[in-house]
Amino acid sequence: MQMSTVSPWPDPSASNSKTSSSPVYLWHTSTTTATASQRSSDQLRPEGEQLLKALVPPLQVYLGERDEMLMVSGFTDNVPVPRHNGQFQDNLELSAQRALTVTRTLVREGMPRARVFSAAFGAEQPVASNADEKGRPLNRRVEMAPVPRASAAVTGKP
């Protein structure tokens, strides 16, 4: 299984093709219209919740067959979180909450808690330039990737 990138904002230059490399948009904003408070949101769009719900059964099978876990990682761009947002102190906290929102949604929809965990990276590890509005939205993302269970990694057993 390849790592899936879940990007919170649509890329207006993206085509409507349904390829596996197309980003999936879970958050309430778009690239061209996002306000500062929207860029600092951790709330899922209804279609994002539906997508995560649909992913749970195949993820359970995949992870169970390989005895792996799912790491849900949150990332942001490098634009500071507005001080008046009332929720998040900084980008690290925002990225953590986005990852937790996805993780909690997966668990609520049936993913066993023992199979999923969250990680936060803030503005670290950008996938595009943060210099302009073309690159920054690509860095505001959540990624999901299968990882070995700790017990298997420590013992060397499959």
Mean pLDDT score: 79
CATH-defined architecture:
2-Layer Sandwich
Order of helices and strands: EHHEHEHEH
Strand order of the largest sheet: 1-4-2-3
- End-to-end CA span: 17 Å
Strand content: 15-25%
The CATH top-level class label: Alpha Beta
Structural class: alpha+beta
Features:
60s Ribosomal Protein L30, Chain: A, alpha+beta, 4-stranded mixed beta sheet, single chain, 158 residues, disordered N terminus
How would you sum up this structure, described in words?
It is a single chain. By secondary structure, the chain is an alpha+beta fold. The chain has helices at 36-39, 46-66, 91-108, 136-139, 150-155, and strands spanning 4-6, 68-75, 116-120, 141-148. The protein has a 4-stranded mixed sheet. Residues 1-22 and 28-33 have low confidence and may be disordered.
Summarize the structure.
By secondary structure, the chain is α+β, with helices and mostly antiparallel strands.
Task: List the SSEs and their pairings.
Layout: E1 4-6, H1 36-39, H2 46-66, E2 68-75, H3 91-108, E3 116-120, H4 136-139, E4 141-148, H5 150-155
Parallel strand pairs: 2-3
Antiparallel strand pairs: 1-4, 2-4
